[in-house]
């Protein structure tokens, strides 16, 4: 998972709750994972295996500034990257639960509703069905790898491509979608691992 994020503060009644980047939880299926930023700014990943949850926390994301976050798990080692640099890793060696539950962005679909909304802006999210290599992650941040169109922050500039247009990213065929198209793909059960979201912003408080 890769995303540029800019955090905004939440109303006081929600000021102790995390910002969700994306996740698959128990809204309409089995718990799988949740990638969030704790309100204090820690990058947090929770992986569910069997009936057990494992959480890894590291890094520190400040409020009001664009920062690049990548979370990578290869079935053995989970790594957190902040602005292209490893800020935490843990050897887990766990098998994440299979699940067909909704993939949600900017919120977490749970059994009792939709919670832990992201407050702020997110841009150019990427979601892969494999772990990115450190060099690929560094390239996403620095923009020194030729792939589609690169913006000044080093990410795929989906806005320079047409909605529905396909391109190749690190050998994978990707398609540019907007938020309504992504929601439709998720509700229809389509594979969204090859979707590049164009400007996911203003997700709410």
Helices and strands, in N-to-C order?
Answer: EEEEEEEEEEEEHEEHE
Q: Number of helical runs?
A: 2
Structural class: mainly beta
Strand order of the largest sheet: 8-7-6-1-12
Average pLDDT works out at: 82
Number of strands: 15
First CA to last CA: what distance? 22 Å
Uncertain runs: 144-157, 200-205
Helix content: under 10%
Can you tell me the overall shape?
A: globular
Question: Could you give a short account of the major beta sheet?
Answer: 5 strands, antiparallel
The proportion of strand residues reads 35-45%
**Global Rg:** 16 Å
Polypeptide structure, described:
The chain has helices at residues 134-142, 179-187, and strands at residues 2-7, 19-24, 33-37, 43-49, 52-58, 67-73, 77-82, 85-91, 104-105, 108-110, 113-115, 120-126, 166-169, 172-177, 195-197. The strands form 4 sheets. Strands 8-7-6-1-12 form a 5-stranded antiparallel sheet. The protein is mainly beta and 205 residues long.
At a glance:
The chain is mainly beta and 205 residues long. It contains two helices and 15 strands.
Q: What keyword list fits this structure?
A:
205 residues, mainly beta, five-stranded antiparallel β-sheet, 2 helices, 9% helix, 39% strand, disordered C terminus
Secondary-structure map with pairings?
Layout lengths: L1 E6 L11 E6 L8 E5 L5 E7 L2 E7 L8 E7 L3 E6 L2 E7 L12 E2 L2 E3 L2 E3 L4 E7 L7 H9 L23 E4 L2 E6 L1 H9 L7 E3 L8
Parallel strand pairs: 14-15
Antiparallel strand pairs: 1-6, 1-12, 2-3, 2-9, 3-4, 4-5, 6-7, 7-8, 10-11, 13-14
